[in-house]
Design a protein that fits this description.
- This protein is an alpha/beta fold.
- The chain has two domains: 55 residues, Arc Repressor Mutant, subunit A (Orthogonal Bundle); 191 residues, 3-Layer(aba) Sandwich (Rossmann fold), CATH 3.40.50.
- It is 37% helix and 24% strand.
- It has ten helices and 16 strands.
- The strands form four sheets. Strands 6-5-4-9-12-14-15-16 form an eight-stranded mixed sheet, with helices on both faces. A three-stranded antiparallel sheet has the order 1-3-2.
- Helix 6 runs parallel beside helix 7.
Length: 261
């Protein structure tokens, strides 16, 4: 995905629908060029093509894992480094399914003595190179598409523990602050992680704000800290302040703690 395509995606996510003519004028390119960009984004299931323009994709189906791995990779890496900086050595951690949590796993490799419980085979494979870590993999059904593990056995396993930090990703943060995802089974595991963590860290890049997804995970007040790469929309920052959720923004390399006045 090139820079123009990334900006087209962001615009459509913000506005819901953007016409081909408007995009051609904004980027000073031909409508044929914009159509090619939209076709590429539609093939990756990031957008839906409509007559005269493009709109947001369905709330029923997530983007392919291989595409998500490369989407906003630099932003995810910034977020991952910031999250890792807030995890002390010898902490206990839940890490769930997602490409952002996989970047966080990479950023944690220089830590010492972590105990990590995960339902993500990719996370376990990434962390096993550090001999000081204890890595515990939850049982359950392995998803072929991304190495995620879900199911009743996964939930029961997670409920055996109480950890210092639960680190989760998400597909969507709705306008009212509801955390949303696409897979009911994945959401139930994430809910168990939230319930059994002393602190909950949510890692989400800027494209997750106001995106559409179908399955409710939790209200935003159930997390302690939101780590992201850009300042969220104003209505989200207001909500975080009202709910006493700490906001940390990677691009600024500084933290903002928003609390009710």
């Amino acid at each position: 995905m090139n820079q123009r395509q990334q900006e087209i995606l962001t615009l459509v996510q913000q506005q819901g629908f953007v016409s081909i003519e408007a995009l051609a004028q904004k980027f000073l390119v031909t409508t044929q060029t914009i159509r090619r960009d939209i076709n590429i984004l539609c093939e990756q299931k990031l957008l839906t093509r409509y007559h005269g323009g493009a709109g947001i994709s369905s709330s029923l189906e997530n983007v392919e894992y291989s595409t998500r791995k490369i989407m906003n990779r630099e932003e995810k890496q910034l977020i991952a480094r910031m999250v890792a900086n807030h995890i002390p050595d010898r902490a206990s951690i839940f890490l769930n399914i997602g490409t952002t949590t996989e970047e966080i796993a990479k950023a944690l490799l220089k830590h010492t003595g972590l105990r990590i419980i995960t339902n993500n085979l990719n996370v376990a494979a990434l962390l096993r190179s550090n001999p000081s870590f204890e890595i515990i993999i939850a049982g359950g059904v392995v998803r072929q598409r991304d190495g995620g593990i879900t199911g009743e056995a996964t939930i029961d396993f997670i409920r055996q523990f109480k950890v210092n930090f639960g680190i989760i990703g998400i597909s969507s943060i709705d306008t009212d602050g509801t955390l949303l995802d696409f897979d009911y089974h994945e959401v139930r595991v994430a809910q168990a992680i939230i319930e059994n963590s002393r602190q909950v860290f949510l890692a989400a890049d800027h494209t997750k704000f106001d995106r559409s997804a179908m399955v409710r995970l939790a209200p935003i007040e159930q997390i302690d800290t939101l780590f992201t790469d850009r300042c969220p929309p104003e209505h989200i920052t207001t909500l975080l302040k009202e709910k006493n959720v700490t906001l940390r923004i990677a691009e600024q390399q500084q933290s903002k703690t928003l609390s009710a006045l």
